[in-house]
Amino acid sequence: MSVLITNVGELVTNQRGPGAGAAMYGAAAGEVGAARPPGAGRGGPARFAALADAALVIDDGRVAWTGPASRAPAADQVIDAGGRAVLPGFVDSHAHLVFAGERGAEFAARMAGQPYQAGGIRSTVTATRNATGDQLRANLRRLAAEMLAQGTTTFECKSAYGLTVSDEARSVALAAELTPEVTYLGAHVVPPEFDGNQRGYVDLVCGAMLDACAPHAKWVDVFCERGAFGRDEAAAVLAAGTAAGLEPRVHANQLGPGPGVQLATAVGAASADHCTYTDDADIDALASSATVATLLPGVEFSTRHPYPDARRLLDAGATVALATDCNPGSCFTSSMPFCIALAVREMRMTTQEAVWAATAGGARALRRTDVGHLGVGARADLVMLDAPSHAYLAYRPGVPLVAAVWQGGERMAGG
Ligand SMILES: [Zn+2]
């Protein structure tokens, strides 16, 4: 059954390349905004683009048509958007959702002046190992539902809190129940039982643990950071993962300057995540590669660290994505609208850049061409805002503006 959503005040399409409904496009068809294309990414031109007074047809779970409402074709069902904005569903390309326990007290202590350190992860590891699979599944599903209600229609999910062969394998298998974007992050921190034997743990991550996790995962990730894993160790983890058929991504330059960004670009990682402390060479490397700089401003908000220099990355031509990093320690938000608001207010991204980064940027960070835009043929993952334009996501921070969500053409949430 086809569905026409018409009377859309602003339809953000992030239209990709020629052929995808291009005839409906351009200034004459009511294009209301286009940001300068980010740099040399994969998959055609990259820019925010939107239509005013638009309509969209969903058929068979895909976007079948977009264009001016006045030219909309007939459909089996018609939904009047009443002048509200419709966007691609958010693509959250960085989340840690398989865990047990919570760290509210640690957050409160941090806000009272104690610094965040990577070792805090260990308390979640203990809780996760002690949890049953059903407990982990219930927590994961609760968070996934929370994301969906806030407009996230695609999310990545990492393991990272098991850190034994069986606990990591359990984590990736649970994540795979809900998303194809599963990341093996055995190399998150060295667990306590390997204190003094970092090398032994890296061998495990590259060996038996990888063998157990690879069948359920698409990605391999490593926390390349002082207090976690150094450059050579991270390179070994990524090489082993790649040899097992996984694609690389890297936690890079979060807590201080380091080799993570350079490593990510050198190995052709899909994404270097965090990029909070970058120098000229790091910016150049990101701008001249297809590696996406995934910024996670909720982390800086929740750890009171300085924000990444998004403006410099964008102006240099790097491709920038926004994601939540939803996890119980350094950032426990699941809200992409909140991250968009932070990106605009705190990192000086334009509202167009921030929305592009939270949709199409995230899709690039996951090497997906079917989501993050509403070109003809895209998966019909959409968000309707209770607002006339995308700018309201930053203009009205903290307000639940997501009025309805479609995933694969199916209405999932909202009235
Ligand atoms: Zn992370």
Describe the structure using short key phrases.
7-stranded parallel sheet, globular, alpha/beta, 14 helices, 415 residues
Structural commentary:
- The chain has 14 helices and 18 strands.
- The chain is of the alpha/beta class and 415 residues long.
- Strands 1, 2, 3, 4, 5, 6, 16, 17 and 18 form a 9-stranded mixed β-sheet that branches.
- Strand 12 (247-252), helix 8 and strand 13 (271-274) form a beta-alpha-beta unit.
- Helix 3 (133-149) packs parallel to helix 4, helix 5 (198-206) runs parallel beside helix 7 (231-243) and helix 9 (280-287) crosses helix 11 (310-316).
- It binds zinc ion (ZN).
The helix/strand class is alpha/beta
Extract low-pLDDT stretches: 17-45
- What is the count of DSSP helices, taking H or I runs of 4+ residues? 14
Output the radius of gyration: 21 Å
Count the beta strands: 18
Gross geometry: globular
Bound molecule kinds, no repeats: zinc ion
* Span of the ends, CA to CA: 20 Å
Fraction of residues in β-strands: 15-25%
Tell me roughly what share of residues is in helical segments: 25-40%
Mean pLDDT: 92
Sheet with most strands: 9 strands, mixed
List the helices and strands and how they pair.
Blueprint: E1 3-12, E2 31-34, E3 49-59, E4 62-68, E5 77-80, E6 85-88, E7 90-92, H1 104-111, H2 121-130, H3 133-149, E8 152-155, E9 157-158, H4 165-176, E10 182-187, H5 198-206, H6 208-213, E11 219-224, H7 231-243, E12 247-252, H8 260-266, E13 271-274, H9 280-287, E14 292-295, H10 297-303, H11 310-316, E15 320-322, H12 336-347, H13 351-365, E16 382-385, H14 392-395, E17 402-407, E18 410-414
Parallel strand pairs: 1-5, 1-6, 7-8, 9-10, 10-11, 11-12, 12-13, 13-14, 14-15
Antiparallel strand pairs: 1-3, 2-3, 3-4, 6-16, 16-17, 17-18
Bound molecules: zinc ion.
